[in-house]
């Protein structure tokens, strides 16, 4: 059981305890490659969204309107579990997918599939109608996480995380959703290549190591030793043309390397500046990468002068905490925001306009150990920070207003990472020398579960999202790099090596 927090500890007053964490993140390595149940989606139909999810009427799905007889297609492979008359719909079809989710299609005037049939993604299943409670021809599309749910989840993030942005054109090949928000930075980082395969970088005493999925949502290559800065902090971001670019910094040097083509081979290491404490990277709304790094005297930044192009010189950011952990996230309107925390102070700054200049640094709380930032389904940013009495969070209550700090318990002095589930809920992972744990939103934009044990201790952690929407978590220790992945959208594998070897030791 976790130790409780002092009830009065609503403000972060967290000591700087960047201790070495020697314990293992896993109980036993295994050699099996990931097995996955997710899928790349297909466009359900053409048309415009005439009624969105939620709202004052609590609309349970989305309506896509078009002419009578417009074809309707299966979102993914699966089994037809309902096909026939349905109250309110006139007629409906429901498909159970291998990941356990259910897509539901309503108001059609013609059904082309029967109960028990197996369908494939993109297969025509019906023709659009206006039967039942409908004012005109449209598809009512509803998504449920499993067959026991009585209320649907928002189909738009569900489809987006499977490669389909609605409105859409049927017949186009599905692919992974683009990387829009910054990737978590730290001793281990992971991001998707343009073709949807995850790549992972981990920093050890002998430099940076690299592995990649051999196929989308699949198994992993062996580790490749890249050299580069030793015991580095890492960041990664996509160029406007889809090429990933990786950044590494230690106390002596900063370097970067980049893909020579989208999803392709990588350049060698190139000089990127002098040393520092931490580094983070994000992408402006116009496609230019921007990098922030902390050092003894504050925080500095450097940015591409054009998409896919050259770089500015390092520039001071106007202050910021010295020797801080820096993380970046993107506001819903496309402005980047940077958060920096050391043992005594927490500050943030933000772009005053999209692709524009930056505000002054503003106080954001007391000091702490680590920070992670993510975004709710409605676009509001949410910040988590760890310290000696556990984890706290703070969230936007509006475009420029924030809640106070609130305790969420959890592992003390932990490294943090976060990502979003396929239906848009934030999930947070924390690891210290003794334990790994996670919490998740119990609904969209909602409160969090209790902390659940996720493994034993380690030194750092990062989360990334597969092309089919499943979260994959990487944990480091002195023994090497391990990972754990969603086998569906609410179940997890055991911890295992990333491939057949342990990879770099990350103290």
UniProtKB/TrEMBL annotation:
Could you tell me the keywords of this UniProt record?
A: Signal
Q: Does the keyword Signal apply?
A: yes
Q: Which SUPFAM superfamilies match?
A: Duplicated hybrid motif, Fucose-specific lectin
Q: Signal peptide location in the record? A: 1-32
Q: Where is the PLL-like beta propeller domain?
A: 185-500
Q: Which residues form the M23ase beta-sheet core domain?
A: 58-147
Q: Which Gene3D superfamilies match?
A: Fucose-specific lectin, Glucose Permease (Domain IIA)
Which CDD domains does the record match to this protein?
M23_peptidase, PLL_lectin
Q: Name one Pfam family in it.
A: Peptidase_M23
Q: Does the keyword Signal apply?
A: yes
Q: What's the name of the protein?
A: M23 family metallopeptidase
Organism name: Streptomyces luteosporeus
